[in-house]
Hints:
The structure is a homodimer.
Chain A: E1 4-14, H1 22-28, E2 33-38, H2 42-45, H3 48-59, E3 62-66, H4 75-88, E4 92-97, H5 99-113, H6 119-122, E5 134-138, E6 150-155, E7 160-165, E8 173-176, H7 186-204, H8 212-234, H9 239-251, H10 267-279, H11 283-298, H12 303-312, H13 322-339, H14 346-349, H15 355-368, H16 381-390
Helix pairs in contact in A: 4-5, 7-8, 7-9, 7-11, 8-9, 10-11, 10-15, 11-13, 11-16, 12-13, 15-16
Amino acid sequence: MFDFKYYTPTKVVFGKNTESQVAELVKEFGGTKLLIHYGGGSVVRSGLLKRVTDTLDAAGISYVTLGGAVPNPHLGLVYEGIELCKKENVDFLLAVGGGSAIDSAKAIGYGVANEGEVWDFYDYKRKATGCLPLGVILTIAATGSEMSDSSVITKEEGLVKRGYSSDYSRPRFAIMNPELTMTLPDYQTACGCTDIMMHTMERYFTQGGNMEITDALAEGLLRTVKKNALILRDNPKDYNARAEVMWAGSLAHNGLTGCGNDGGDWMTHKLEHELGGMYDVAHGAGLAAVWGSWARYVYKDCLDRFKKFALNVMEVEDKGTDEEIAIAGIEAMEDFYRSINMPTNLRELGVKATDEDLVKMAKKCAIGVGGQMGSAKLLDEAAMLEIYRASM
Amino acid sequence: MFDFKYYTPTKVVFGKNTESQVAELVKEFGGTKLLIHYGGGSVVRSGLLKRVTDTLDAAGISYVTLGGAVPNPHLGLVYEGIELCKKENVDFLLAVGGGSAIDSAKAIGYGVANEGEVWDFYDYKRKATGCLPLGVILTIAATGSEMSDSSVITKEEGLVKRGYSSDYSRPRFAIMNPELTMTLPDYQTACGCTDIMMHTMERYFTQGGNMEITDALAEGLLRTVKKNALILRDNPKDYNARAEVMWAGSLAHNGLTGCGNDGGDWMTHKLEHELGGMYDVAHGAGLAAVWGSWARYVYKDCLDRFKKFALNVMEVEDKGTDEEIAIAGIEAMEDFYRSINMPTNLRELGVKATDEDLVKMAKKCAIGVGGQMGSAKLLDEAAMLEIYRASM
Lengths: 392, 392
């Protein structure tokens, strides 16, 4: 096992109608002038934004608003937010939405708290020395950004999608009301469940350094999401299932399920990032579409972990060779993806890529990870291309 | 399930030689003048205290020291610490040791940050409005105080043992080096494993409000501690087992294993507190000594949970009636306690109590909990007495 740091300072307030506590939480963490950042119109249409601003008005907290965060959030909007914050002397960010609004708010926070070009952080050129404090009202269970140190931004020029992680951006508080996720389209719910599971699976498939307790927590989390994703497929209004998935989403990406390991594999995410950058696909669906091809390419190099996953998460029968059990686990995972209407290849994802496109994506992906990356198996550009081709 | 808050701001730095990072962590959290609080001589004899003070000296951080924290830490020493902090203008507390040193430091922190009598907080008379910031170098895996909001202090007059919980006292950082726990006597190690499991079991045996993900995490944690406690019985120097137990100790009591439930049962702890107050027994051993009698008294009122515990934690065979499975789980837990040389009744604990003593303890326990308490089953003074009698 490896040494580790664990730092999750976010105060989570979880349950029905918890958004009514937003003003006291903002005050507790010292906010006096807010930028409320949100995504599409659903936050407006549902009345959530008005409830939030009414609560802030009543508490005498002033704010400006900025909507328009989109999936794979764009750098242009980040610039706009930074300018607005500076002009209005904003001292606290409130993201209302899912990962897009939160990630975009984190990038705005870096831009306000640091001089110079904010893209530098996402382009690995320098490190942030701070971030404007941030609170979250979560409306989509998926990215885990509400407790995580990471954010992913897409630069429009060249459609470059990059992530940056630092503890400065961990939200001060996260309001989580499972009811707010009930109106999500089924496809988005399934994408969220996929993303949540992948955050833990990326940390699970490693070449050692694993702790038994971390594995036990990870496997328990994965089984819970798997079960409740199926409940939500059939009954999207099930409060308990919404709550299980929402809390799992935070725990899957706050660091808990990676304690003691080598940092994780993360190649499925990197392969998807190129898809997301070029085709603007839903992140969760993109992950599902490439995972199976990745898994089949790497499992022999990480056989113990794939076997453990098959037995303890997918609960396949313990018979046959280790390889047979590992493959049965991968197949069961793909069956699960199909059962919640997630794609298991690029065609099903709706990506009509030519082989030239795949070559281009593999090249960009390799550049993005600095040449090669992966823990279950180290992948270079040629390997990435092979996985993309297998996922057609 | 119930709404919940989850707040664990402690920065954990886990692994070999992590105590060498103490000065930078103190600086990160703003400490300039420290009170280093520790317990018995082992922290001195092992050279740990000198390593810590050398590191602080090299970083130019000044400090005063106060040793003498004992199991069931006493209020008298807390007063001494408060006076010393005020006299020396201490702005940060560093506890080096186990739960006794940490709990005692938390009480000192309340005493410095609040006017008036510090015992008031433990006596339910008023609430603290702050606590001096606190860091921890952990040397015993047991109480979870290194990430928790709680502390337990014993008032010498009348031997009254009481706990107080508030987020203000959650440590800013916790340095956890499993190697520092390797020299613990076997009995202390077993007591620690018992305490850790009990922190999660207190949260597990409730009358509803449970989340599946919380159960999955709790069960995984319990299985991990159970397995590694046996490894440590046979090989106290096993680094991985020390690490598994140490990390489990923090997760068992930072709130994670209670998310969504009704707050937990906690009657085993309350019953033990009276024992600990009157006889100065080791906390973990006291818990083991009363748990079985408590469990047999309450299990019929909480049958689903006892059955789930039997199957998923103690891994007993799924055959017979629910009651038979529940009893098999209780017996398996008692067998486990015996296997790590923990007592399963007061005699084995070495407590020679007369029936008059038991009556007195039950009375004090009932007063301590405000009349009656318990989630698995609500217990009054008569019930407490019956459990004490059954545990003789």
